[in-house]
Amino acid sequence: MRVKVCGTTSVHDAVLAAEAGADALGFIFAPVSKRLVTPEVAREAGLNVGPVVARVGVFLGQGLDEVLRTAEAARVSAVQLHGPLAPLYLKAVAAYYPVLRVLRPADLGREATAEELGLPGVTPMLDAPQPGGGQPLDWAALRGLFPAGGWLAGGLGPENVAEAVRILKPAGVDAVTRLEAAGGIKDAERVRAFIQAARGA
């Protein structure tokens, strides 16, 4: 079970999550996000947590050149992609970085989705229709549809991640909103509790 703490906005919070046992940190580069960070902050955070913790750059609807340029400047080790994307775009990004391809429940079972997930280096991540909204998915309804080897996001926190893991058995879990003390600022106790609950399940 791998655990990603997303929406990391400072070196302090990156170190906090790494010390709590996070396997990966998410840095959001989508301009629409209230947790937007600069590549410089992400790069400095990566230097402070060391090479064992994965650094994931999160993008939404940005052009290929921008994604690759930002990812290189931030020194991320993987890329998370939201929004409608062509398989050729995914293939191009995956030539440089491992990709977490974010899907919505409505995407599951579609032929286009199967084509995307068949690309080398692309791993599915199931998220809520409104990322970062803190609303969990109906995990029981997704049993049997959840992609093998996929990650789970969407409204996860210390109080519900164990149940989600037991139902869907994801390869990894990802959380943002329910780990915060305030917008963009992590709550150390909740981060630790989330990681412990996910692994304990």
From TrEMBL:
Q: Name one Pfam family in it.
A: PRAI
Q: Does the keyword Ribosomal protein apply?
A: no
GO biological process entries: L-tryptophan biosynthetic process
Pathway(s): Amino-acid biosynthesis; L-tryptophan biosynthesis; L-tryptophan from chorismate: step 3/5
What are the record keywords, sorted?
Amino-acid biosynthesis, Aromatic amino acid biosynthesis, Isomerase, Tryptophan biosynthesis
- A single GO molecular function, which one? phosphoribosylanthranilate isomerase activity
- EC? 5.3.1.24
Transmembrane segment boundaries:
none
**Which reaction equations make up its catalytic activity?**
N-(5-phospho-beta-D-ribosyl)anthranilate = 1-(2-carboxyphenylamino)-1-deoxy-D-ribulose 5-phosphate
Q: Which Gene3D superfamilies match?
A: Aldolase class I
CDD domains tied to this protein: PRAI (cd00405)
Describe the location of the N-(5'phosphoribosyl) anthranilate isomerase (PRAI) domain by residue ranges.
3-197
Which SUPFAM superfamilies did the record assign? Answer: Ribulose-phoshate binding barrel
The entry assigns this protein to a family as follows: Belongs to the TrpF family.
The record's annotation in PANTHER family points to: N-(5'-PHOSPHORIBOSYL)ANTHRANILATE ISOMERASE
Name under which the protein is recorded? N-(5'-phosphoribosyl)anthranilate isomerase
Q: What is the lineage of its organism?
A: Bacteria, Thermotogati, Deinococcota, Deinococci, Deinococcales
